[in-house]
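Bumping with the actual sequence this time:
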Amino acid sequence: MARPEANPLPLVRVVGPSMAPTLRTGDVVLVHFGKPPRRHDLVLVRWSARPGQLSIKRAVRADGGGWHVEGDNPFASTDSRTLGPAEVVGVVRARLWPRPRLWRRRPAPEG
């Protein structure tokens, strides 16, 4: 099987509850590899402690050479709060299945 990075816009199937309610198991998303992340983007990441695992999380802030990322469901997410900074390998651009939607960054909080 080809690595996802071989295609700059591959499809990724979501597994697990860490991004609920934003994304759920079975959702299919389009990921843009090589696009630099920005705060609040949904991103595809990996951690040095788990090099074979790819996860989708929300970019919170740049952290050293990586990003602090968190799942939208804090009760079902293993993320930077446990594993430290993650390497962002791609930015989620859209959910294609089952409810198509383009992703835009959340607005920054006021105040």
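The tokens above came from a reply further down the thread. Helices lie at 80-83.
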